């Protein structure tokens, strides 16, 4: 299957952007990763098996660009700017607090949480996308939940 570029951007643009944002934590980096991902799609020569294959490919490419950006000299020497977290709608402080807590997770926990809880992939599918074993995904999810539980208990007890 050869995807229609504009339809693919419309359908999966939010997925790519949110994945990049949750990984990078900044709007500008997310926009750069979004652009690079779809540039790569525009030059992709091989056909995709189906829609799920295309979606998994986009997530994998997005994650790879995130990792490349994280390893680059640019990310080691850039100054952190205070940016607002983009959201589809204003669902209140609770959703924003959870998103901020997820963003603070180490990369090894953040990606499985993103794929499993935000995008609904199974542990097996998440393992394949991240190229790790299924037990490793389950372990990382459990550790992430424990970390989030502690972090969010502290935040909500202070209120």
Care to describe what's here?
There is one protein chain. The model is unreliable at 75-91 (pLDDT under 50). It is built from eight helices and no strands. The termini are far apart. With 159 residues, it is mostly helical. The chain is globular and about 50 Å long. The longest helix has 25 residues, at 134-158. The chain folds into two domains: 1-82, Rna Polymerase Sigma Factor, Chain: A; 89-159, Arc Repressor Mutant, subunit A, CATH 1.10.10.10.
Notable characteristics:
single chain; 159 residues; mainly alpha; Rna Polymerase Sigma Factor, Chain: A; Arc Repressor Mutant, subunit A; 8 helices
Biggest sheet features: none
- CATH architecture tag of the largest domain: Orthogonal Bundle
CATH topology of the largest domain, what is it called?
A: Rna Polymerase Sigma Factor, Chain: A
Q: Determine the fraction of residues in helical runs and give it as a percent range.
A: over 70%
Strand content: under 5%
The rounded Rg comes to 16 Å
Low-confidence stretches: 75-91
CATH top level assignment of the largest domain: Mainly Alpha
Q: Give the structural class.
A: mainly alpha
How many helices does DSSP assign?
8
Order of helices and strands: HHHHHHHH
Average pLDDT, to the nearest integer? Answer: 82
State the domain count: 2
How far apart are the first and last residues' alpha carbons, in Å? 52 Å
Q: What is the number of beta strands? A: 0
Overall morphology: globular
């Amino acid at each position: 299957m050869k995807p229609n570029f504009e339809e693919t951007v419309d359908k999966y643009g939010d997925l790519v952007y949110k994945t990049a944002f949750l990984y990078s934590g900044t709007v500008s980096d997310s926009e750069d990763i979004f652009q690079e991902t779809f540039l790569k799609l525009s030059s992709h020569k091989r056909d995709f098996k189906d829609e799920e294959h295309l979606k998994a490919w986009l997530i994998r490419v997005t994650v790879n660009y995130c990792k490349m950006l994280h390893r680059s000299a640019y990310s080691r020497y850039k100054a952190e700017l205070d940016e607002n977290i983009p959201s589809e709608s204003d669902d209140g402080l609770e959703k924003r607090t959870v998103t901020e807590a997820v963003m603070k997770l180490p990369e090894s926990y953040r990606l499985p949480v993103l794929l499993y809880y935000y995008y609904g992939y199974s542990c097996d599918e998440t393992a394949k996308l991240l190229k790790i074993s299924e037990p490793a995904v389950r372990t990382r999810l459990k550790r992430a939940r424990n970390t989030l539980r502690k972090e969010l208990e502290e935040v909500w007890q202070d209120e």
